[in-house]
């Protein structure tokens, strides 16, 4: 396979990082490199990381800079080919059979009876779509095995129609929250990147980029607080998305006249969304909230 | 026909081979991708080679330190095998016990090499023996998927009766009858085994049983989907990936190297709290059959263990505790902690012999699918 060193004007990881920044996504070096290699090698990009670190946002941003439609396949336990790939429109097929009772034959496996699902859509229009297979760890092993053929050959078999092959390799991005280990066969078909929580300075930058209403001091205070919270034994530590929400919520409350520590305290619900976690933190909130006063 | 490999490429090709030799699973296609990635990135510096390696050879985050050490050794000539440096756990938490504040460590994969033993812990590398009764274990594994509790899954399967209509089968049947729908074919939701979380005590008091319990865990990992295995004593160690090796001897050897607290003290509460503190691990307990193989002789604070078991029970489908001390039906827990958590346990069974333990685990499945 010939390598494409330039894709949509992107000729290096640095160029990709720059383009992503224009799409309001601050990419660290690792994700920019993995993203560029995935595009250049024509391989799927597998992004792993804790919930809320920006995996899905990365996919959206990549679709945005490539000027392609993002087709999202949200995984869940029990997801199968009918939800991911295609389904026949059985009621219409039955009607067609009934209408053809006068002796004429009819082909009930024409395109008009085919209901296209995300994977088939990406396969048919590889040059204008980005396929996001989101939270693959939520699916079961059967679906993971089913994906292997698609991700290695970018072809699918429809028994009634034969094998469909993508005219070119589609851009596919998979995300996983690591609630379970993915099969090695799936991992090795992908370019891989683990997204950690961002460095404090970068996270503050992300907050300000995402929400222009948030002051720098507020962003830094929120980042310091979520940094502490992530070291607590919480069942759901706040991600980047929660940090952005918290900064916005505290800013909104402060505009209504609440003092800064109070605004942070009252808006903690947007960052910590588990009662057990809140109960754990409540007695010690004062330990980090006073220091956040901006 | 032999292909002459350019000299400059040889170190790059040798690196995946080195990784394989250290337990990394690298496929040949990944080696090809690695070479292509290096070409794409320049490479202008050695860091570009590292980035290409990380992206294409895909080490797990827990393996990253070991991966980097091997990279440095291979490309930069750094001295020392991975793991020779001081052990750096991927996560750790402070806990309080009766001897003061000390860490209980959480390890996973290559992190647990036994190098990080704290002075307070009596640690040893153990040579695990596979049990003699391999046939009994195989029979146990064969019976296990049907025996353990199931729950309704979200996949549907063809059935004589069911709430769902199988349109595909109904259509095919109608086509055989000239489009006349004679009867509707049905679907029902298939059941699937609940996830299993196996927590194995490897402290000194369980020394006689550790080998068998690890062999049992190996059999379970291969018999069923979604089995997670952790050991605990003075630290918590995830063994699932090591036990996925098919050959039992190899798997046990790998596991033996990971567990750093063989035959040490027992801090069950601290270990369970550490387990629950990692969201990814705590998720394994959700809706799971939790099987604890321990005598329950807690040396730490009983309140910690009681609190942790309560939290586990809130997440799990059921908790079954098997102890070698429960030899007869009159057995009653002696420790305060185990007595206190007894009402939370679906059963407190006998683990004094392999056959009894197998029988007890297979009996768990008498609970009906819910």
Describe the fold and architecture.
The complex is a heterodimer of chains A (294) and B (370). Chain A folds into 2 domains: 13-195, 3-Layer(aba) Sandwich (Rossmann fold), CATH 3.40.50; 200-292. Chain A has helices at residues 13-22, 29-41, 55-66, 81-84, 90-99, 118-124, 141-153, 184-188, 200-210, 216-229, 240-255, 260-266, 275-281, 285-288; strands at residues 45-49, 69-74, 86-88, 114-116, 129-134, 155-158, 162-165, 171-176, 191-195. Chain A has 294 residues and is an alpha/beta fold. Chain B has 370 residues and is an alpha/beta fold. Helix content of chain B is 41%, strand content 18%. Chain B contains 14 helices and 11 strands. Chain B has an 8-stranded mixed beta sheet with strand order 1-2-8-7-6-9-10-11, sandwiched between helices. Chain B has a 3-stranded antiparallel beta sheet with strand order 3-5-4, with no helix packed on it. In chain B, strand 7 and strand 8 (236-238) form a beta hairpin. In chain B, helix 1 packs antiparallel against helix 4 (64-76), helix 7 crosses helix 9 and helix 10 (268-277) packs across helix 12. The termini of chain B are far apart. Mean pLDDT of chain B is 82; it is low at 83-103 and 108-123. Chains A and B meet through helix 2, helix 5, helix 8 and strand 9 of A and helix 2, helix 3, strand 3, helix 6 and helix 10 of B.
Adjacency order of strands in the biggest sheet of chain A: 2-5-8-1-9
Helix share bin of chain B: 40-55%
CATH class group of the largest domain in chain A: Alpha Beta
Identify low-pLDDT runs of chain A. none
CATH class of the largest domain in chain B: Alpha Beta
Number of helices of chain B: 14
Tally of structural domains of chain A: 2
**Content-based structural category of chain A:** alpha/beta
Name of the CATH architecture of the largest domain in chain A: 3-Layer(aba) Sandwich
**Nearest-angstrom radius of gyration of chain A?**
23 Å
Question: Which structural class fits the helix and strand makeup of chain B?
Answer: alpha/beta
Question: Can you tell me the overall shape of chain A?
Answer: elongated
Overall average residue pLDDT of chain A: 88
């Amino acid at each position: 396979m010939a390598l494409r060193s330039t894709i949509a004007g992107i000729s290096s990881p640095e160029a990709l990082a720059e383009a992503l920044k224009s799409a309001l996504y601050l990419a660290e070096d690792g994700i920019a490199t993995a993203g560029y290699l995935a595009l250049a090698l024509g391989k799927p990009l597998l992004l792993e990381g804790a919930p809320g670190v920006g995996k899905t946002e990365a996919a959206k941003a990549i679709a945005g800079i490539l000027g392609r439609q993002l087709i999202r396949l949200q995984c869940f336990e029990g997801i199968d080919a009918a939800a991911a790939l295609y389904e026949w429109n059985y009621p219409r097929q039955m009607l067609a059979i009934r209408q053809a009772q006068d002796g004429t034959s009819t082909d009930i496996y024409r395109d008009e009876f085919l209901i296209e699902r995300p994977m088939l859509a990406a396969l048919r229009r590889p040059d204008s779509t980005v396929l996001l297979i989101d939270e693959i760890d939520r699916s079961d092993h059967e679906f993971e095995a089913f994906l292997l053929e698609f991700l290695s050959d970018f072809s699918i078999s429809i028994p009634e129609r034969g094998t469909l092959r993508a005219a070119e390799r589609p851009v596919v991005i998979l995300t996983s929250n690591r609630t379970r280990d993915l099969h090695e066969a799936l991992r090795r078909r992908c370019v891989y990147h683990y997204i950690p929580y961002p460095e404090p300075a970068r996270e503050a930058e992300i907050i300000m980029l995402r929400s222009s209403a948030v002051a720098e001091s507020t962003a830094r205070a929120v980042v310091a607080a979520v940094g502490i919270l992530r070291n607590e034994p919480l069942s759901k530590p706040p991600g980047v998305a929660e940090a952005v929400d918290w900064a916005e919520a505290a800013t909104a409350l402060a505009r209504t006249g609440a003092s800064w520590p109070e605004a942070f305290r009252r808006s903690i619900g947007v960052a910590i969304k588990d009662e057990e976690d809140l109960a754990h933190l409540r007695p010690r909130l004062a330990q980090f909230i006073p220091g956040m006063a901006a | 026909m032999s292909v002459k490999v350019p000299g400059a490429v040889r170190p790059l090709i040798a690196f995946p081979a080195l990784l394989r030799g250290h337990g990394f699973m690298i496929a040949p296609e990944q080696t090809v991708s690695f070479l292509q990635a290096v070409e794409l990135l320049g490479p202008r510096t050695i860091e570009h080679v590292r980035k290409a390696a990380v992206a294409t050879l895909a080490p797990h985050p827990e393996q990253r330190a070991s991966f980097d050490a091997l990279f440095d050794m291979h490309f930069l000539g750094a001295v020392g095998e991975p793991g020779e440096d001081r052990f750096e756990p991927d996560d750790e938490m402070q806990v309080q016990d009766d001897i003061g504040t000390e860490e209980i460590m959480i390890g996973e994969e290559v992190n647990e090499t036994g190098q990080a033993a704290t002075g307070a812990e009596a640690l040893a590398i153990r040579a695990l023996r596979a049990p003699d009764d391999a046939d009994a274990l195989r029979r146990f594994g064969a019976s296990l998927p049907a025996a353990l509790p199931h729950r309704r899954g979200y996949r549907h399967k063809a059935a004589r009766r069911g709430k769902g209509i199988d349109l595909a089968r109904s259509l095919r049947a109608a086509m055989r009858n000239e489009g006349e729908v004679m009867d509707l074919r049905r679907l029902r939701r298939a059941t699937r085994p609940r996830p299993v979380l196996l927590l194995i005590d490897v402290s000194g008091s369980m020394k006689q049983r550790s080998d068998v319990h690890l062999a049992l865990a190996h059999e379970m990992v291969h018999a069923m989907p979604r089995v997670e295995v952790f050991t605990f004593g003075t630290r918590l160690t995830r063994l699932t990936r090591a036990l996925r090796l098919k050959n039992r001897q190899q798997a046990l050897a790998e596991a033996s190297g990971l567990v750093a607290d063989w035959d040490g003290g027992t801090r069950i509460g601290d270990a369970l709290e550490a387990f629950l503190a990692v969201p990814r691990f705590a998720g394994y307990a959700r809706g799971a059959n939790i099987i604890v193989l321990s005598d329950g002789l807690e040396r730490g604070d009983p309140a910690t263990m009681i609190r942790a078991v309560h939290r586990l029970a809130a997440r799990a489908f059921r908790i079954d505790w098997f102890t070698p001390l429960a030899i007869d039906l009159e057995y009653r827990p002696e420790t305060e902690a185990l007595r206190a958590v007894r009402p939370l346990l679906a059963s407190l069974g006998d683990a004094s012999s392999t056959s009894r333990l197998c029988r007890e685990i297979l009996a768990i499945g008498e609970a009906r699918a819910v």
